[in-house]
Inverse folding.
């Protein structure tokens, strides 16, 4: 699926791998040595499905399918049971103040910032956290160092995988170094790939990533992630997706129908960060045709028309042939990358993408109003013989170059096809290059590459 969606990744980790066990053991020892793990007795509510111990206020009364009274988790709705057992506990309650100070001094540590309120409420109720399970009940876990009767709690084990890939990265041929974990290896990772700039998670696991994980790292004396992005979920026509409702959406079907670019575009524009994204194929189809096929695809097709540009050449920059409207459009154009970059840094993809689409709508309107087809002559040896036509095509094609450069992270296949046609070399397809006029760093010679097929085909829904 990642390959079909053009999503690249550096590593793929299984928590059963030796490199991960090495990391978990090392982290556990650090927590023990710092005095933050002790043996204690736990008595309270436990959710087997969620692998989580719960506070009394996180449990409510309910009934099972037979009408029998049960207790369930407020957060997940899964059944809980009362347990009493001896295991290892982490002094989470000791980190209340440090966690609050972290949030106070790093207001953008959790995105969207509205989730900070939820995290603060959890911090206020923190008790110590059980970080092991009896091995008879969870035989698949990583054994606690020196205690074969206990295994490491899944949310200490699993969270440590972020550290694992930093300390034991895969090399260029896909193999992980299998040396033992050591302080030297850890310091090497800390000077290179740790801490991560961004953790991207779902909103349902905020507590584990914005409370437990930072506290573990604080106790181990390790730097915290710079930012945690907790996105919303996807619903289908405002309802939670479930097999019983028959409203589960299959990505493969949508990729086959709209292409990976079309599906990626929809996910990034309509996907929720602060709130849930809502799937509706009618909206997907409208976005695909209005924004991609019409706004981008049609403009590209019209601008490379053989009737307008029979020699298939890049228009020359002739400042004297530009009117005031041309100059205003170009000035605004070179601000687009900066605005998009700001939106990306704020994890506001819809705003960044809409900035580009609004620019393309303006250029479409400009192209139509200037009617370049009326400037065609029978003796048009090159665009230079018709300066006004050259100017219109320069503004249009330069707009396509800039907007496609900044849209590469959204629709990589379409933008690659367009930039390939314009003969833009890969090293010139950067945000930096998109903020300056094309003529300042290159001077295209000869005809451009053959034009690609239709970028976005019309789709019957």
């Amino acid at each position: 699926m990642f390959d079909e969606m053009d999503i690249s990744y550096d590593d793929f980790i299984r928590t059963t791998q030796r490199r991960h066990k090495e990391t978990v053991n090392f982290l556990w020892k650090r927590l023990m040595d710092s005095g933050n793990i002790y043996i204690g007795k736990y008595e309270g509510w436990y959710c087997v499905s969620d692998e989580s111990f719960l506070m009394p206020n996180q449990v409510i009364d309910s009934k099972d399918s037979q009408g029998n009274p049960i207790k369930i988790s407020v957060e997940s709705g899964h059944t809980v049971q009362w347990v009493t057992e001896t295991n290892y506990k982490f002094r989470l309650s000791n980190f209340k103040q440090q966690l609050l100070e972290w949030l106070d001094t790093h207001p953008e540590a959790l995105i969207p910032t509205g989730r900070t309120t939820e995290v603060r409420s959890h911090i206020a109720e923190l008790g110590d956290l059980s970080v092991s399970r009896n091995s008879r009940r969870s035989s698949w876990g990583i054994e606690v160092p020196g205690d074969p009767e206990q295994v490491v709690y899944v949310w200490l084990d699993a969270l440590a995988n972020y550290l694992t890939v930093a300390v034991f990265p895969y090399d260029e041929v896909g193999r992980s170094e299998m040396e033992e974990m050591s302080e030297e290896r850890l310091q090497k990772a800390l000077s290179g790939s740790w801490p991560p700039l961004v953790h991207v998670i779902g909103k349902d696991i905020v507590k584990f990533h914005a409370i437990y994980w930072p506290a573990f790292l604080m106790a181990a004396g390790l730097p915290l992630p710079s930012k945690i992005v907790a996105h919303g979920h996807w619903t289908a026509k405002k309802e939670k997706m479930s097999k019983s409702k028959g409203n589960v959406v299959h990505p493969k079907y949508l990729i086959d129908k709209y292409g990976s670019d079309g599906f990626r575009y929809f996910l990034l524009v309509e996907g929720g960060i602060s709130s849930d994204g809502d799937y509706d194929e009618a909206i997907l189809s409208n976005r695909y045709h209005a924004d991609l096929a019409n706004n981008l695809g049609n403009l590209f097709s019209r601008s490379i028309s053989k009737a307008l540009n029979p020699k298939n050449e890049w228009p020359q920059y002739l400042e004297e042939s530009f009117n005031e409207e041309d100059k205003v459009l170009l000035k605004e154009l070179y601000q687009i990358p900066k605005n998009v970059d700001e939106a990306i840094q704020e994890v506001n993809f819809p705003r960044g993408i809409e900035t580009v689409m609004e620019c393309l709508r303006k250029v479409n309107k400009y192209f139509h109003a200037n009617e370049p087809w009326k400037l065609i002559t029978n003796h048009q040896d090159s665009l230079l013989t018709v300066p006004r036509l050259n100017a219109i095509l320069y503004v249009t094609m330069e707009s396509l170059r800039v907007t496609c450069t900044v849209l590469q992270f959204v629709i990589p296949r379409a933008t690659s096809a367009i930039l390939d046609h314009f003969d833009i070399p890969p090293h010139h397809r950067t945000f930096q290059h998109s903020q300056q006029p094309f003529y300042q760093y290159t001077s295209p010679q000869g005809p451009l590459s053959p034009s690609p097929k239709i970028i976005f085909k019309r789709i019957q829904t």
